[in-house]
Write a structure and sequence with these properties.
Blueprint lengths: L3 E3 L2 E6 L5 E3 H14 L3 E4 L5 E6 L4 H10 L15 E2 L6 H15 L13 E4 L11 E7 L6 E8 L7 E4 L3 H15 L7 H5 L4 H6 L25 E4 L6 E6 L4 E3 H14 L3 E4 L4 E7 L4 H10 L13 E3 L13 H11 L6 E4 L13 E7 L2 E6 L2 E7 L1 H14 L1
Parallel strand pairs: 6-7, 7-8, 16-17, 17-18
Antiparallel strand pairs: 1-2, 2-5, 3-14, 4-5, 4-13, 8-9, 9-10, 11-12, 12-15, 14-15, 18-19, 19-20
Helix pairs in contact: 1-2, 1-7, 3-4, 9-10
Bound molecules: iron/sulfur cluster.
């Protein structure tokens, strides 16, 4: 586990398997964030947690607390190999397969050479899933019982599949893909898209040591998923309990809020919550009699439970308070924009071209050009330059009115 330097102190990433966070682990994270850092906790767009403002001398204490909370890797050096993304609604069966993948990857020391950004997506057709991230390797169930999975590389799940494998072969297949990637990739090819820009996908597949792969109909596409299901209360697949979801403000929680969430899931749910790639939290297993109280408590904590709320429609990167690359204080500007945001507008504020906050497409990007000034980009085209936040809000209001 590394402390990465940032403008506001050290930054530590805690990888959560499938976003899973028990009440006890949440309390431990809140304590660690307070004792070892600034107390700022972020939910990332890979459904992990980041603790900001960490002090170098607190590194050992932090590691001890994280391991105590059972949030560390199972193998030394294996922390970066836990980028297996699941739906927040993944079943126990899918989670079990995800866990097998992670265990196998962590157990192979040769794979520790993979980039920390190298990511896998495993989905079984859940109605809520982040399908727009460009994962290096993805597996998507072809049938209701998830007996076979379509697979593809270096792209979003909506793209065409390259083939299919049986569930029983999934771990062996993924391990073969990762080993082949490391064998073929040059020193400056860190992601699957880098390699496939040079090596044809069909040729790459020929190098794999896997059981016979099946063809997938050209017309196959992963069923539509609905991101709005991450917010508010929705009946779960068991037909009895509800999941209740809420959006953090620009991906951030403070220690008191995280501890309050831990208390909430203890008293009103099943002592666990999930973080999501939309930087939100989702509480599964809420009884019908508790739904209203849980929604009210989440709102009282400043989280948005309605997809129309401004903070459900804005993302912003760390900005100049936390990142030396940023040309503007995107977080503060996003708070101002939230007060002015027209209905239905979705906006991403980015301090530079890296777009750390939005791995998925967002309707409008405000790219910082100077403190408080932004270039407005829509559909990959610059629509306006050097706007203040107020001018950007007016531009958005006009474009909504004309739509
Ligand atoms: S998008 Fe740029 S400015 Fe923002 S956090 Fe990432 S690197 Fe920093």
């Amino acid at each position: 586990m590394r402390i990465v330097p940032a403008r506001d102190g050290g930054l530590v990433r805690l990888r959560l398997f499938g976003g899973e966070l028990s009440a006890d682990a949440a309390r431990a994270v809140a304590q660690a964030a307070l004792r070892c850092g600034s107390g700022t906790i972020e939910v990332t767009n890979r459904a992990n947690l980041q603790l900001r403002g960490m002090r170098d001398e607190a590194h050992e204490a932090l590691i001890a607390q994280v391991l105590d909370a059972d949030l560390g890797p199972s193998a030394e050096g294996g922390d970066d190999l836990r980028n297996v993304m699941l739906s927040p609604l993944a079943s126990d069966d899918t989670r079990a397969l995800g866990a097998q993948l992670i265990d196998a990857m962590q157990g192979d020391a040769a794979l520790h050479a993979l980039s920390p950004k190298f990511a896998l997506q495993l989905d079984a057709g859940e109605p809520l899933a982040m399908l727009d991230h460009p994962h290096d390797v993805w597996l998507s169930a072809l049938d209701r019982d998830a007996v076979h999975f379509a697979f593809g590389f270096a792209g979003a799940l909506r793209g065409a599949a390259l083939g299919a494998i049986a569930r029983a072969d999934a771990v062996r297949f993924v391990m073969s893909v990762l080993r082949a990637f490391l064998a073929l990739a040059s020193d400056d090819e860190h992601r699957m898209r880098d390699l496939l820009a040079r090596v044809d996908a069909a040729r790459f597949l020929e190098t794999l040591d896997v059981p016979a792969m099946q063809a997938v109909p050209q017309t196959w596409r992963r069923p539509h998923a609905d991101a709005s299901l991450r917010l508010g209360a929705h009946l779960e697949a068991n037909g009895i309990t509800y999941h209740v979801g809420a959006q953090t403000r620009l991906g951030r929680l403070d220690t008191a809020s995280l501890a309050a969430l831990a208390d909430l899931v203890t008293t009103h749910a099943q002592r666990r919550m999930l973080t999501t790639p939309w930087q939100s939290v989702l509480i599964p297993g809420v009884g019908k009699q508790h739904v209203h109280a849980v929604l009210a408590r989440l709102e009282a904590l400043g989280l948005a439970t309605d997809a129309h709320a401004p903070f459900a429609r804005i993302v912003a990167c760390a900005g100049s308070q936390g990142c030396a690359r940023s040309r503007a204080d995107t977080k503060a500007d996003a708070h101002r924009l939230a007060l002015l945001l027209p209905p239905d507008a979705e906006v991403h504020l980015s301090g530079c071209e890296r777009s750390c906050a939005a791995a998925h497409p967002v309707d409008t990007t405000l790219l910082a050009v100077a403190p408080g000034r932004y270039q407005l980009i829509r559909q990959a085209r610059t629509q306006a330059r050097n706007l203040t936040i107020e001018e950007a809000a007016m531009w958005l209001a006009r474009s909504t009115a004309h739509a």
